Amino acid sequence: RDFNERCAQCSEVNWGLTDGGRYYCRSCHNVTERTREVVNTDFMTNSRVQTISKGSRKQEKDGIGCEWYVCEGFQLVLKKQAEALEALGVCPQMKDEVLYNFWRCYLQKSKQAYCNRPAGETVKALSVCESSTDVDSEPERPNFLHLLSLSESEGDLQTDCSLASSMSKVSESTSIYSGSVDGSLYLMKNRKEKLRMTMPMTLSFCYMALLWLREPITLSELLRFVVEGHIPYLNVFQHFPEKMKLCGLDLKIFCVESWPVYEEVYNKMLELAAFLDLPRFPDITDSCFLHPDMLCIKYLMEANLPDELHNWTCRVVKKIGIGEVDFLTLVPGNKSTRKVKYDILAAAVIVVVLKLLFLLDDHYEWSLSDFAEERNKNNKEVCLFYSGALYFEFKKWYKVVKHSLDVEQKKLDEERAKYLWRCEKPLFYSVKNKSKVLKRRQMVVNLQNQFGKLSGSVRRAEKPNPSSFQLSWSEENTDGSCFHGHSLKGILQEKCGLLTAMNPDYWLCTVKLCNEKLCGHLAHYREVDFPQSYHFVLRLFSFLLRIQPSYIHDEVCMIEHKLFNKKLYKKLKYNTVLRK
Amino acid sequence: SSHEHKLNFKKSKEACLSYLQDAMLQKQWKRAAEFLTFYVESLEKDYSREPVGPSEMIWRIGTEILCHHSRSNMKEFNCFMEQMKTLGVKRYLKVCLEHVFHLLCNGQIDEAYQNLSLAESWRFGEQTAIQDKEMKLIQAYRGLLDYYNWSKQKNILLEHGKCADGFADLSVEQEMHSCFRKAAVNLKEIIKIPGVWDLFVKCYVDMLEFYGDHNEACQVLNEYAYNSKFPANPNAHVYLYQFLKRQGESKKSLISALKILHDIVPSHELMIDFNTMLQKSKKRKKRRLGLEVIFAALDYAGWKENVKAWSCLARQVKQIVIAEKHLDWIKQEWSSRKDWWPAFHFSRYLAKRNWQENKSLSYEKALVAGILLGKDCKYFKYVSHQGCKAQVKKFRMLKKFVNRHNPVYLRISG
Questions:
Q1: pTM of the full predicted structure?
Q2: GO molecular function of the protein, one example (chain A) (predicted)?
């Protein structure tokens, strides 16, 4: 102890601390009025800041753990996620450079408003940041963070922090209780302040980095990998080191009980890109995976549609200019342009092409199909000779794909019902309910074992290997269930040297688009309002992308309005003229 | 935000539960067990706002699965129940009770007894008072098992009685008395509460009778039958009647014991005894009631082929006709039945069938038919003709009798 005065009563220097934090003489039990300056005895005091910057961290002997900040936790999460992505084949650049830089930039930008500091000290913080960029070579990144926040050794911040982490003095109201140093501050912050980090946001970070590197993973794929367990998300805190204890408010921050939704992750990504003041992202050119022409190939294959349809998707893309570099490339902060969701866009293009060629009004596509069926029957012998392609029959395709889709959907629904959310590392809100939580956990494990044995030989299937394709169709199958090579001959005709659809009609999903900013959607999709075939096609892509059909419907509306812009404009003008 | 489709813990468990319930409905126990393993982690989440929480679901569903699954056994079951007891203190006694029922159904009487004793000694603050009803039930069932033991001891004694083995008897006897004391206390308590306690009452009375405490037994049975707070229970009256009969009570008390039974369950099998007693009574009102009772019983399809019942009716009707007194009684009873009894009891088809299957039945019925419907009715004509053809003496007598008293029919039907 650093209290070296002699006792007033017995002149000994043998001090202890009462529960109230006062010094008392062990020899004569004289209690003084002197109290410890810093409230907690369990954690480091301010005076030890210097040792931290050297890279060592004082551990606690009684096993309570070390100090840690919430963003350290998130940093760990991001690290794990990046490693997983690397294991999936993403280039190592992502983890080592891109993601790390984004994260650092975020810390810098948000730290300014992260702590309650008077403006004067803000400058100090920044300068500390800059000088410590040389600390890159440090293996332990958490220390770098410590430098950022512990550089102010005085001020309310420190007492706030230490109060929050003080276990001995915890008031039983759990509002300030957390294992992390700043958990309570974190949650108490005014939400309007700069972009507070959340678990879904980690995925936004990942996606942003992937997009920057133009990696061939779409957001829907990323989210699917997360749900399938290939990328840590749920229960990722299991991988925190032992000494980083999670409890209390940390649970609210790190424990997720729902899967992130596409919209949520995407919108946060945009916010983040703007917040970090990022420049225009690297160009998405037509050789990029994310370019609609490329993605359409993938989705056409997965949807078991003829390769020939690709010509059409390219035509549509070209016509409405959504293949342009400037349209596709993300420019953060630019509020005027509608941001591109590459996967949904490509799927929507295919839907529009199907509507162009097959109309999808629950009548025309079936009669076209009958026609193709006739042709195929008659040409059977011819086909054998010329190995010419079969005419594409919508009906057959529908049957085959619907069957597979139903099977997979059923599997998926059951998987969702069988999802296990809890993990072996139990969490408890406070030390008080620790034993209760552990007992419950034990009971759950017992029951799982007991009934698991009665489930028969059904063992929980191992995680399936991550795959880019959820539905696959092979041309080698003799049952004719693969339609890739089929021809669109039966539904096309030549006019003035150009191939056009035989179908002369088209129906718009909606005549007028809604204001997305006001009602959140461009259009409002209700299954009953639209033809079954259209709904089926939406359902198919909705399953592949794991999003609600309405989002694809929105993009379809957008594309249609671009495509039929002139006609619509004319009609609108005509209507307004009439009214006058 | 409006992400209602967002998949979260709660929705995932709801879906799991629905798959689980489906599997149960289709008796797919393996599949149900599988889904239950995924459902149990709901215990780690707080559902205190829901009316039925996961702990109750798991208890009930788990019990069902363990009851029906081919690979489950009592050991598994007991282990499971012990865990369930720790899950919800508000349900503790209920779980104990149901566990005991299962043990009893599986013949594990001793284990059941142990569990009951254990449960009886449970105390948990204010829960003890809240779960008072369950506690009473537990005590009652323990009383029942005590009775069972008492009964065993008694049988041993009776067996030994035949062998005259003096010494062994003493300990058995003491054991028996101790069981009696234990049982009596609890059984007496439970039957104080308004309810249906047939088994408990029977057992208690059995013991009381053995020890010769007839007063107490009588009081208990009277309470059980006549206390208006208790739900109407035909068995209560039956027990009382049987007791009184055993005690050799007067016909008067026996008759009064069966009165309410007739009101509640006119088709009760004891109506025959009732009618028999009433017929023989000297009081006119009683005999009148007797006629009412037997007619009422035969309104029920279950009595159609009951020879005894028909013979009672036949006897009484015959007596009235011969005495030529109180024909109006028959008239009264018949007036509400004459529209439907002919088709119900006295069709030609039935005549044939009864004759073929049961000659005594057809005899009795023919007598009644002859009186009520006259000698020209289908039933009587057929049966008496057949009977006479077969040269059975009593049928000839029957024919004569009915012919002689035919005018009666005219008076009744008028």
A1: 0.73
A2: zinc ion binding
